[in-house]
Amino acid sequence: ELVFADVADFRVFSRTLAHAAVPVTQLFFAGHVVEREHRTRVRKLGKSFLRLAAHTLRRRVGSDQLWMLFFQFLQLPRQCVVVGVRDLWRVQDVVEMLMMPYFVAQCFDAFRWGAFGHEGDYRKRPGPVLWYVGFEPMDPLTHFLTGACLGRAGFNRKAAYATLAMTLAAEAPDLDILWGLRGPVAGFEHHRGITHTLIAAPFIALVTTAVVWLIHRFRVARLRAKPTKAPLRWGLLWCFALIAVLSHLLLDFTNNYGIRPFFPFNPRWYSWDIVYIVEPLIIAALLLALFMPWLFGLADREMGVKRVLFRGRGWAIAALVFMVLLYAVRNAEHAHAANLVRNANVTSEPILRVAPQPEPINPFLWYVIIETPDFYQTAVVHTRSDQVDSDPAEDVIYKPPVTMSTLAAKRSPLGRVYLDWSKFPIVEDKGPLTPPGYQVDPPRPDWHTVEFRDLRFGYSVLTLKPSDLVLTGWDYVGPQQEIEGMFMNGTEQKD
Description:
The protein has helices at residues 45-48, 71-74, 102-109, 118-123, 140-152, 162-171, 184-190, 201-221, 234-254, 280-303, 313-342, 404-410, 413-421, and strands at residues 86-87, 90-91, 129-130, 353-358, 365-371, 375-382, 387-389, 396-398, 425-429, 448-454, 465-466, 473-477, 483-488, 491-492. The protein is α+β, with helices and mostly antiparallel strands. Helix 8 packs across helix 9 and helix 10 (280-303) runs antiparallel to helix 11. Helices cover 33% and strands 12% of the residues. The N and C termini lie far apart (58 Å). Strand 12 (473-477) and strand 13 (483-488) form a beta hairpin.
């Protein structure tokens, strides 16, 4: 039986394959073997994600490597395999391997799961990289699960299709991501726009109800489905869908990206800043509330027990109550962290603003941004022990000087949208450098790149480093202060 020992990193540099099924100009492989054949202990959190990768000796494709299935269709002209056979700590045989074309990895990363895809595992070395899920400040899974638990909390007993309608409505406001088809700056401008407002919520609920009605008509006309267990009440179903849409707005309000609930009458952004974009505790509670009733129902069927209608109400209510309690704890600790920083004398300058930013899982750990007239200072606060860690020599970020290029960039469409949204913006003239995603080499000496970034999205989470491209924008400013290009997340806006 083959058992892995130690496998070193290696890379195959770019080359061209003449007879590939599609043009392939970049092929590479680099990675660790982070577990033995029958062992799962991984000491470093970042390496644990590599366990999801496809394993050549496991006879399976990992859940993270779904696009590997397309290898059987691509038929690469040269496929080598690396196999290390260990016997008494001696390597008996080594065969070279060429692995994973870069364009296939990009296909998976198009789903914006970042560090859970190939790009986060292999291309961004050294160290794990934290990617935000597109522009989305609350992951879609949380919204879907919240809608499902709301439906199972008792609404599904009052109207047929309540769980389906509330699950769809809970994620429906995020359809504004379709604006991203017009370019990254357009997507950023319209994200958290009209679909995340109180005025649009009733219409989104109405559209969701109409979709469910069409599904019902299809089931009756084509599938000849049996009558529903609960009565058909379309007006009541619309009310339930409206509750689910409002739950989406509430969840997005709890994190530090924020929403504009009163847009277009009031364009101000509001955020609670108490929950991280992905909160594993909430996801675990919601998944448990949906999984346990299914598990108990499976056990009942095995024992021949009569099926119980609308199973899982208690579990769903318990998960929702857990969310409320977690929000209450985090809200109290958020205020406590801010008070600790104000009273800790971490800086001699007058403090203008203090903004604690949440960490996932641990409600007693906060990343705090402190603003003074001349600079920003960051601190790590442990509210359980009332400890504030901040080093003025390393944690101070001076506000960049204003130049003619930064003034021009602030007046650009990207600049106006970014400064309207950002609470702690850093607008910096990078000089004669080309923005990421702009294929010009060498850069023109009289053109300047102006970078927009927000300090709220620049801190490490669970030892994962933030990407330099996430929620960062660039303007390429010409010698006459004209805007030659706008870029967001490393992609150019095409007008």
